[in-house]
Design brief:
Blueprint: E1 11-14, H1 20-31, E2 35-40, H2 43-52, E3 59-63, H3 69-83, E4 88-91, H4 107-130, E5 139-144, H5 157-177, E6 181-188, H6 204-208, H7 219-230, E7 241-244
Parallel strand pairs: 1-2, 1-4, 2-3, 4-5, 5-6, 6-7
Helix pairs in contact: 1-7, 3-4, 4-5
Length: 254
């Protein structure tokens, strides 16, 4: 699929991009002319993703934990050394190892969720800034939040809490890093990925019935919005969170 060349000559780093939403974002940016550095924990999945993106002329990968500062430094360094620059960071890595009421949440799980979903995003941005993001040409950051961060989300309440914090981080950094780096977020509802499978598998029809647009999200739905926010088409947009939800958060009266 060809979408034009909005990202011709630009380089993006996309975390959690061996599959799902992250890989769809990488595919979209490469289709629009970008070169990408993708990260995830498992090298095998990353190798397959790089091949699918067109090989090493278009993509490079670095395996590691998203909240590991050494991995972050290596990935940013690899992006710059391989492609010569860094123009955009897409913070897609996220975890949700805890289900149930907040009153029963294990403290260790809570800390890990915040470390990966919020603090790691801040660290990625700081590392990218040190490597030159926004120094010579405008830079962009897009954080992948969730509608769970906008309203109560039974069963995944602390995941939602972390995404609410990520949305807050987005607005704060947008103010601090302007005018050289724009920082925005997207907040998807349920997207058909392995990560979200527990939210719809076995009861998809019931879940879909809540969506005015009649279907769950696909990774490509999120990729298109992220590409817009990372591109010069959004040059006057910063500090915003774009809800991508198939209408599920519309008031019941509508």
């Amino acid at each position: 699929m060809t979408h034009g060349s909005r990202f011709e000559g630009q380089v993006a780093l996309i975390t959690g991009a061996s599959r799902g939403i992250g890989l769809a974002i990488a595919q979209r940016l490469v289709a629009e002319g970008a070169r990408v550095c993708i990260t995830a924990r498992k090298p095998e999945g990353l190798a397959a993703a790089v091949e699918g993106l067109g090989g090493e002329a278009f993509a490079v990968s670095v395996a590691g934990r998203g909240d590991d500062p050494e991995h972050q430094a290596e990935a940013v360094r690899t992006a710059v050394q391989t492609f010569g620059r860094l123009d955009a960071v897409i913070n897609n890595t996220g975890i949700n190892p805890a289900y149930g009421p907040l009153t029963e949440l294990d403290d260790g799980a809570a800390r890990k969720i915040m470390d990966v979903n919020v603090l790691a995003a801040l660290r990625w941005i700081r590392e990218a800034r040190t490597a030159g993001l926004g120094a010579d040409t405008p830079g962009a950051v897009v954080n992948i939040a969730s509608v769970a961060g906008l309203h109560p989300s039974p069963g995944i309440g602390y995941y939602g809490t972390s995404k609410a914090a990520l949305i807050g981080l987005t607005t704060q950094l947008a103010a601090e890093l302007a005018p050289n780096v724009r920082v925005n977020a997207v907040a998807p509802a349920v997207v058909k990925t392995r990560f979200a499978a527990a939210l719809y598998e076995g009861h998809e029809a019931e879940t879909v019935a809540r969506y005015p647009l009649g279907r769950l999200g696909e990774p490509e739905d999120i990729a298109g919005a992220v590409a817009f926010l990372a591109s010069s088409d959004a040059a006057w947009i910063t500090g915003q969170t774009l809800v991508i939800d198939g209408g599920v958060t519309l008031a019941p009266a509508l």
